[in-house]
Amino acid sequence: QLQLVESGGGLVQPGGSLRLSCAASGFILDFYNIGWFRQAPGKEREGVSCISKSDGSTYYADSVKGRFTISRDNAKNTMYLQMNSLKPEDTAVYYCAASLSRRLGCPSGGISWGQGTQVTVSS
């Protein structure tokens, strides 16, 4: 059974940093397209940052380029999202995801989702 479990969300002041973790079980992350999505209240879920299984290339949404970094530790079967210089508009529930398919740089179709972790950026 494919399972993703996120951790690391919380409340942070603008300009601060957080690191999200997503531990996978039941499958090997390295064989999948993986990524992080987020959903703010009243908005659609959007892809934030992703890694392609074919060549390891990365995708970043324009809104997070230069501030967020996605990575993967194959030994721990875990992916991460380092978030720096956080802004109030980064407030959302963040989900990790994995899929054998990919579209526009991120997992698509038959996606396995984590349970989500809340990130709140506020003073």
Write up this protein:
It is a single chain. With 123 residues, the protein is mainly beta. The protein is built from no helices and 13 strands. It has strands at residues 3-7, 10-12, 18-25, 33-39, 46-51, 58-60, 68-73, 78-83, 92-99, 102-103, 106-107, 112-113, 117-121. Strands 2, 4, 5, 6, 9, 12 and 13 form a seven-stranded mixed β-sheet that branches. Strand 4 (33-39) and strand 5 (46-51) form a beta hairpin. The radius of gyration is 13 Å and the shape is globular. The model has no long low-confidence stretch (mean pLDDT 96).
Summary, kept brief:
Strands 2, 4, 5, 6, 9, 12 and 13 form a seven-stranded mixed beta sheet that branches. Strands 1-3-8-7 form a four-stranded antiparallel beta sheet, with no helix packed on it. The protein has no helices and 13 strands. Helix content is 0%, strand content 51%.
* Number of DSSP strand runs: 13
Beta-strand percent range: over 45%
SSE string: EEEEEEEEEEEEE
> Quick one: biggest sheet?
7 strands, mixed
As a percent range, the share of helical residues equals: under 10%
| Overall geometric form | globular
Low-confidence stretches: none
Structural class: mainly beta
Count of discrete alpha- or pi-helical segments spanning 4 or more residues: 0
Rg, Cα atoms, Å: 13 Å
What is the residue-averaged pLDDT?
Answer: 96
N- and C-termini, Cα separation: 40 Å
